[in-house]
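Hi support team,

I'm opening this ticket because the web form for multi-chain structure prediction keeps timing out on my end. I have pasted the exact lines I submitted so you can reproduce it. The total is 1120 residues across four entries, so I didn't expect it to be a heavy job. Is there a limit I'm missing, or should I split the entries? Thanks in advance, R.K.
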Amino acid sequence: MANFKGHALPGTFFFLFGFWWSMKYPLRHRWKKRQHGTRQSLPVFFNRIDLIEGSLKIFFAFVGIMAEQFVPDGPHAHLLNDEGWVKLMNWQHSTMYLFFGISGIADVLSVSSLSVPVGLDRLALSLALFIEGFLFYFHVHNRPALDQHIHSLLLVAVFGGAASTMLEAFLRDNNLLEVFRSSLAILQGTWFYQIGIVLYPLNGKEWNQEDHGNIMFITMCYCWHYAVALLIVGVNYSSVWWFTNRYGGKQRTDLEISLRKTNQSDSISQKALLQESDEE
Amino acid sequence: MANFKGHALPGTFFFLFGFWWSMKYPLRHRWKKRQHGTRQSLPVFFNRIDLIEGSLKIFFAFVGIMAEQFVPDGPHAHLLNDEGWVKLMNWQHSTMYLFFGISGIADVLSVSSLSVPVGLDRLALSLALFIEGFLFYFHVHNRPALDQHIHSLLLVAVFGGAASTMLEAFLRDNNLLEVFRSSLAILQGTWFYQIGIVLYPLNGKEWNQEDHGNIMFITMCYCWHYAVALLIVGVNYSSVWWFTNRYGGKQRTDLEISLRKTNQSDSISQKALLQESDEE
Amino acid sequence: MANFKGHALPGTFFFLFGFWWSMKYPLRHRWKKRQHGTRQSLPVFFNRIDLIEGSLKIFFAFVGIMAEQFVPDGPHAHLLNDEGWVKLMNWQHSTMYLFFGISGIADVLSVSSLSVPVGLDRLALSLALFIEGFLFYFHVHNRPALDQHIHSLLLVAVFGGAASTMLEAFLRDNNLLEVFRSSLAILQGTWFYQIGIVLYPLNGKEWNQEDHGNIMFITMCYCWHYAVALLIVGVNYSSVWWFTNRYGGKQRTDLEISLRKTNQSDSISQKALLQESDEE
Amino acid sequence: MANFKGHALPGTFFFLFGFWWSMKYPLRHRWKKRQHGTRQSLPVFFNRIDLIEGSLKIFFAFVGIMAEQFVPDGPHAHLLNDEGWVKLMNWQHSTMYLFFGISGIADVLSVSSLSVPVGLDRLALSLALFIEGFLFYFHVHNRPALDQHIHSLLLVAVFGGAASTMLEAFLRDNNLLEVFRSSLAILQGTWFYQIGIVLYPLNGKEWNQEDHGNIMFITMCYCWHYAVALLIVGVNYSSVWWFTNRYGGKQRTDLEISLRKTNQSDSISQKALLQESDEE
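Hello R.K., no limit was hit. The queue was backed up. Here is the completed structure from your submission:
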């Protein structure tokens, strides 16, 4: 899939997941603060969302593997023929999808009623990102300087995401890490597009692969992509906040009124609430 | 031991230990949840198992050192002769076994009644893995490209295992880390076999050591090995879960009945139990 | 800005921020210990200081970006002309300032009444430092040995600061980490001056860029800079301590007297106080 | 000090400190368990020991700096003369001693009644080790292969010690980390001797600097040194344990008797004690 589309496709997926996460996690965080409770107080609604997310990951991974294998110029599930290895690139991409599929299975298991270790979903996602980076690392060998550099930059987002997601397996429900992961996923998504645009320019004008200026620009451009990713995450976070305040506000007021009524008797829970709003 | 057998032997050990761990830790975890207690509530049975495991490690390490030294073409405990160093490879393997033996001693001490620092067993295992990786790292110098690459890939599992086991020294009894370690041990085991097969092919047909396609395939193959390792760990985990539910089920039901009886008086312990099942 | 002034300017900023932090954090720490309370007991005064600090960061970042763009030999907001990329160095510096500006925005949001994730301010500062190091890393390619070495040394302070600030996002209000960050900021500040002095000597006598002795001296000199930074931080810490004891002392004595009075009734809070002073 | 003595001297210091720590920390740990209390229950005795230790570090660092400067072939506090830099090696060693001196000052401040941040002593020691490794890293450039390798191996102990000591700044009073640090200090000590023996052989027979066998042996030899370091730490730990049980035993029995007497009334503290002995 060495063309623009081949980079736009995974880019779209990473972008959409990052965008979706940057709304899901703040929303869940708000909900939990409202209920000032533990994980158990999350409505079935959120569990169902995680289930759908996991299922989608499995589905897309499966479709991705099939597509890589059975596109007209794919290996059609042949690994070795008389001339040697068959279409190793497609096999490598299939392997990457496989691990994202495993991550999807871990997501589904984690929200099911089965007894899996706490944090399995994040560990599996971290492994999927690590495997992606691991394969990309050896992928870019023996290529022109710019091609190699632009793929190496991707690894910063990939390994950064793997490390931060690994941390999430131990620091559960840390809103900051979840938002950070969202931003790195968006970065990956937009950077895949950038790679496609640079290596397979739409206007047909090839970039000079050895020009030092190009490499310097691309490095800086990567930072701009991240600034945009942070902006998107920030806007989504604020929207969720504004939205929950606007349409969830009535509920809060009711709560406050009822608290005022029970002012004398129930001072402990009020303190807990105050502490909560101070933490905000 | 530069032959197929020389790689199959350590591979078998790592595989067996990984396989065994992937059953022991979930079983112990289940047991502890049942007893909803602390470490003290673990039966003597589990302590005895750890004792046997440690003793086996010491025994195998000792046998390994002896074998490396006194095989017909071994150094027979001579380090230096008139021509220089004698069979440094065998000495290096002996050194690796030595540290796994030390790890076995730490295991035995940790379950004994002596007062050793908490986490000593995991630190010692982490050190043994680090020393293994450390010696392998300088081991593979000056070899053909494929040979070097296939050994370097091993280091990912070795150093990954060292890091994750080091973490276990501080995050005690973290089920996720224990399962992760099991999977990395299985990966090491099967990869030792793969190294043996590639470098000393059973059908006698040598692999091209410099072909880039071979290196790309081997990198991907490594990921497949890990996918298989995850599958094995997952199947063992599920089996333990199913088995303990099937044959340990009666006990649970009894517990639930007795809880229902004491419904009014003993609401606190019930809450603890509920919380527990929610965590599952 | 490849001249002495171009290095002195950022150096001054880093030095001033480090110097300021090395007074602010001990002061805040002292205050909190006095009130032996949680974060909520901090007076509005400290929040206002953080707000001003954040606003200054935004302001200086904006001024910095404008200056880099519209100095006489700047790119004047042109990125590409007929000859290729325009003044990429200035664009890179603008990008660095941009992320420090984002860090300023995060500071302001964190002290506002809005609900941002806990630790956002530190994560944003960590990212700003990471981006600075990231751009510098590719910045110094293809330069003479001494130039490259002296910039690489800067990266130790930059990435060290990024890592330690990232840690602060999770270990909130850890006085040791805050002091450590102050010392690294001062180191960066003075080292920028050193770079300016070495590469653009005021007396006009150029340093030999390839002399191994120069490189050895510069490495050692870097350690001396850090020793001085530690000294400055230590002096500031002691001054704050002495100052708060001297002028905040009356308050303490009053407290002690009132405690002695309530000796019989209020033994618990006294214990808490004792524990506190033991910790000192 | 490029001779055997110049390596034996720092080696002796590191060995002695490691040996001393491997007795001090287990002893303190035992004491604290006995008193089943917090840090405050440590007798003044231990504070005094830390004070002496810190003072010794300052004294030796001062002596070391003076010696490096004013040995007959030293720089005599001249940094620059007409021919260029003067004796940079001696200046580098002085710099290393300086930071160990700073670590000594931090030790003294930490046990004094002044209010320094918790963990400052460990952070300062970690920095001293980091600076040592940092200077060594650029120290070994442009040397023969064996010389470079044998010094690089030292860095594993140095940076390992820096990382583990940094961890101690946050995981206070972790017995495992303290024992680990002791073992790494002993390793450094004995390895300095090994470097001296290899580079300046006592029997005058030079080692072949380029022989791959020598490099392989040295790598393995390093692991043996660590095995010996672990043995020393283990023997010291056991000795302290045996000694405190033998001569501190009477006290324990008294405690147990008095507990039995207060069996009915004081069940909570007994539970705490039981929990404690189970943890052992």
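A quick check on our side: The two ends of chain B are 47 Å apart (CA to CA). Let us know if the file doesn't open in your viewer.
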